[in-house]
Design goal:
four-stranded antiparallel sheet, single chain, alpha/beta, Arc Repressor Mutant, subunit A, five-stranded parallel sheet, 42% helix, 230 residues
Length: 230
């Protein structure tokens, strides 16, 4: 059975948003819908997504600003702007900020479905079909499902646990700077978030206790290094 691809959707028009969300779900996508730009970046940071659909004119924080922040956190995730702003300057601004497509309202929903499918296929091709899978010693880490597998055993991770583990895998055998992880996952590097991350590191170590080759070392004052055998 295939896993549904996840869509991060930000749109303040309640009628339009509800209709499009329902249509996307009918087309077998998992959709998280926000109506206020104020919460978009923190919500994006909390989860794992395959593609973003962003309105431009939003309360508090506009879609361009959200897209800029998302692109700084994830250079590869496809971003589509859905907007009534059809001026050439606005369209160019969207592409300059890293948009993969810019669709002017009103639009045909079937065209949007096609564009989503194309961008997802392209992103998968660029990163490789198994980019979401990490072999960590005896374990398999699936970033899409947010789970660690050891044989038939499954350990489901919280969004922050999965995001932190993915960063450690991406920096395997290298230093993962503490400040980078804190700002990318928690949004700041203050005292309380630092203590929170230390708790998460301890939990991750326990998840891998069946394989002594998997090690997450604390480099005092700097960050962490994850090492393991494949």
């Amino acid at each position: 059975m295939s896993t549904r691809r996840s869509i991060f959707f930000v749109e303040d028009d309640l009628s339009f948003g509800a209709v499009l969300k329902s249509y996307l779900e009918i087309c077998n996508y998992a959709v998280t819908w926000l109506t206020d730009g104020k919460y978009a970046v923190s919500s994006f940071r909390e989860g794992s997504w395959d593609i973003c659909l962003l309105d431009v004119m939003l309360p508090n924080v506009d879609g361009f600003s959200i897209g800029r922040e998302i692109r700084s956190m994830n250079a590869r995730i496809p971003i589509i702007y859905l907007t009534a702003k059809s001026l050439k300057e606005d369209i160019l601004e969207g592409y300059k900020l890293g948009a993969d497509d810019y669709i002017v309202k009103p639009f045909d929903a079937d065209v949007l479905m096609y564009k989503i499918a194309v961008l997802l296929k392209r992103a998968e091709g660029e990163s490789g079909n198994t980019n979401h899978l990490h072999t960590i010693g005896k374990y398999l880490f699936d970033t899409r499902l947010r789970e660690i597998r050891l044989g038939e055993a499954r350990q489901l991770l919280s969004p922050k646990e999965a995001a932190l583990l993915q960063l450690l895998c991406e920096h395997r055998n290298e230093l993962l700077p503490r400040e980078m992880a804190l700002k990318r996952i928690w949004g700041d590097d203050g005292y309380f978030t630092t203590r929170s991350m230390d708790v998460f590191i301890t939990k991750l170590r326990k998840f891998f206790r069946e394989d002594p080759t998997v090690e997450i070392r604390n480099i005092h004052g700097s960050g962490f290094i994850m090492t393991y055998e494949n």
